[in-house]
């Protein structure tokens, strides 16, 4: 019987690279192991490049990302997950405000129209520009950012941080044109976009709260959290009753709690959640 082979075979047919669990868990595939290693070696500029390679909103994600990478971290079962999101924020706070990205060239004759200048629309615009396409983004409001601007309180995500990421995106993508105050169906139609561009992407966002479909929900005193936060971010400061009840335990619910406590009239906020306190998903 011949001896069993030792070592690695020269035949690499069945060999393939398996990324780290944290990178697999990231919706945009951020190479967390690389940027953490760069930070350890004090190579912060290389860490910045690794962070922003697939994520044009890295400064924002350093603050409000749900960080699915951390529960997936291999160290979670030993001494606790690496603080991946906080490390991202550290690098972006250190280098982000003054970083000048190299512009990407428009190399394709085809153009793409995108409806919506929120995180989905702008991320798609970034990736298409990197691929060489010219991109026009049509936004119905007077500001860029979508839910990042209208749905997250300023005390949790300062507008300056959003502006920083957006300006970096514009510098990197000279083939990107953003048209504000251009609602679909009013200033521009879908047929017009189809005629002007080779492809159209609808990134309309989630502007509506989730109804509970329970008795009493139609009462004038009941408002969904998404609409409430949008009104506040638009500058409204309504007078609230002394006691406010928030139903839910997610990020929107907790943001609504904290906003309500800052508004005139409110003294007490009560949270009603269907599960236990240790199961509240808000970060």
The level-1 CATH class of the largest domain: Alpha Beta
CATH topology of the largest domain: FAD/NAD(P)-binding domain
- How many discrete domains? 3
Radius of gyration: 23 Å
Helix segment count?
Answer: 12
Gross CATH architecture of the largest domain: 3-Layer(bba) Sandwich
Biggest sheet layout: 4 strands, parallel
* Helix-and-strand structural type: alpha/beta
Shape: globular
CATH superfamily of the largest domain: FAD/NAD(P)-binding domain
Layout: helices, strands, pairs:
Elements: H1 21-25, H2 32-40, H3 44-52, H4 58-64, H5 69-72, H6 84-95, E1 111-115, H7 119-130, E2 134-138, H8 147-150, H9 159-172, E3 176-179, H10 190-196, E4 199-202, H11 225-233, E5 243-247, H12 251-262, E6 268-272
Parallel strand pairs: 1-2, 1-4, 2-3, 5-6
Helix pairs in contact: 2-3, 2-6, 3-6, 4-6, 11-12
How would you sum up this structure, described in words?
- The longest helix has 14 residues, at 159-172.
- This protein has helices spanning 21-25, 32-40, 44-52, 58-64, 69-72, 84-95, 119-130, 147-150, 159-172, 190-196, 225-233, 251-262, and strands spanning 111-115, 134-138, 176-179, 199-202, 243-247, 268-272.
- By secondary structure, the chain is α/β, with parallel strands linked by helices.
- β1, α7 (119-130) and β2 (134-138) form a beta-alpha-beta unit.
- 37% of the residues lie in helices and 10% in strands.
- The strands form two sheets. A four-stranded parallel beta sheet has the order 3-2-1-4, sandwiched between helices. The chain has a two-stranded parallel ribbon with strand order 5-6.
- It is built from twelve helices and six strands.
- α3 packs across α6 (84-95) and α4 packs across α6 (84-95).
- The mean pLDDT is 92.
- The chain has three domains: 21-98, Orthogonal Bundle (Fumarate Reductase Iron-sulfur Protein, Chain B, domain 2), CATH 1.10.1060; 111-202, FAD/NAD(P)-binding domain, CATH 3.50.50; 225-279, no CATH class.
- The N and C termini lie far apart (60 Å).
